[in-house]
């Protein structure tokens, strides 16, 4: 049920997240399991973690998106629908959804996992989104889970249909910039900070010596992708 349809205990540790999700779980234990990473359960007895829910949530997400695309885009071929669905349910798309919910701070994980950047790790956040979808499915049924998916993935679906979801921003930037001939695209590591297990990198991307974007990440690759993404957004704004 929706948050405004039920009474929430203000002492409930999940109240903040339930408000973000606009969901009120009848069985709070399901949400707790969905938010529990396997590292948290290591060495502890009777602690359930979210891997099995991820498995189920992936299927619920796939069928919800598949049905929506099938019913609403009758002129698209099977191949086109498959491509769009893959963009919508991919790890990066799930990660973007998780960031909107600020999901990282709600996940239960070991101290070691947290110290190595677990609360911002793409795979952990994406898996947790799937686990939450499964928890809603078990708690409230398929129809409610499907409604939840379609509401929260609306922007992602729209971008996928318009082919505006980019999985590799560096490649996309190169394609855009080379439409007018060869250009020199340079990624420069400006600085890094933090301890070795939690190092943050700052990268700057320039085209023909003109700086187009700056990005950050917890690996050089991630910071370069971030810089390319910022550059693309800037170009889109300039041309828009």
UniProtKB/TrEMBL annotation:
Residues reported in the UniProt entry to bind Mg(2+): 54, 127, 130
Domain RNase III, first and last residues per copy: 14-141
Cross-referenced PROSITE patterns: DS_RBD (PS50137), RNASE_3_1 (PS00517), RNASE_3_2 (PS50142)
Pfam families: dsrm, Ribonucleas_3_3
Compartments where located: Cytoplasm
Keyword rRNA processing: yes
Record-listed E.C. numbers: 3.1.26.3
Active site: 58, 130
Annotated region (Disordered), positions in chain: 212-240
Subcellular location, principal: cytoplasm
Uppermost EC category: hydrolase
SMART domains according to UniProt: DSRM, RIBOc
UniProt GO MF annotations: double-stranded RNA binding; identical protein binding; metal ion binding; ribonuclease III activity; rRNA binding
GO biological process terms held by the UniProt record: mRNA processing; regulation of gene expression; rRNA processing; tRNA processing
Residue ranges occupied by any DRBM domain in the UniProt entry: 168-237
Record's keyword terms, sorted: Cytoplasm, Endonuclease, Hydrolase, Magnesium, Metal-binding, mRNA processing, Nuclease, RNA-binding, rRNA processing, rRNA-binding, tRNA processing
Subunit architecture: Homodimer.
Main function: Digests double-stranded RNA. Involved in the processing of primary rRNA transcript to yield the immediate precursors to the large and small rRNAs (23S and 16S). Processes some mRNAs, and tRNAs when they are encoded in the rRNA operon. Processes pre-crRNA and tracrRNA of type II CRISPR loci if present in the organism.
HAMAP family associated with the record: RNase_III (MF_00104)
Family indicated by similarity: Belongs to the ribonuclease III family.
Protein name in UniProt: Ribonuclease 3
């Amino acid at each position: 049920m929706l948050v405004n349809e039920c009474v929430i205990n203000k002492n409930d540790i999940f109240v903040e997240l339930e408000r973000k999700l606009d969901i009120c779980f009848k069985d709070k234990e399901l949400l707790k399991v969905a938010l529990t990473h396997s590292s948290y359960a290591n060495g502890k007895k009777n602690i359930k973690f979210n891997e099995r829910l991820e498995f189920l949530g992936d299927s619920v997400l796939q069928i919800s998106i598949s049905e929506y695309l099938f019913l609403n885009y009758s002129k698209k071929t099977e191949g086109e629908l498959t491509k769009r669905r893959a963009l919508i349910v991919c790890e990066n798309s799930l990660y973007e959804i998780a960031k909107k919910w600020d999901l990282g701070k709600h996940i239960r994980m070991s101290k070691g996992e947290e110290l190595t950047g677990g609360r911002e790790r793409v795979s952990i956040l994406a898996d947790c989104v799937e686990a939450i979808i499964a928890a809603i499915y078990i708690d409230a049924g398929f129809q409610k889970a499907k409604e939840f998916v379609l509401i929260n993935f609306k922007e992602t679906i729209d971008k996928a249909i318009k082919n505006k979801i980019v999985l590799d921003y560096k490649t996309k930037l190169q394609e855009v910039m080379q439409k007018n001939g060869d250009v020199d695209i340079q990624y420069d590591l400006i600085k890094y900070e933090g301890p070795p297990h939690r190092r943050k990198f700052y990268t700057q991307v320039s085209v023909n010596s003109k700086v187009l974007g700056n990005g950050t990440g917890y690996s050089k690759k991630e910071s370069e992708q971030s810089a390319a993404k910022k550059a693309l957004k800037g170009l889109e704004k300039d041309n828009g």
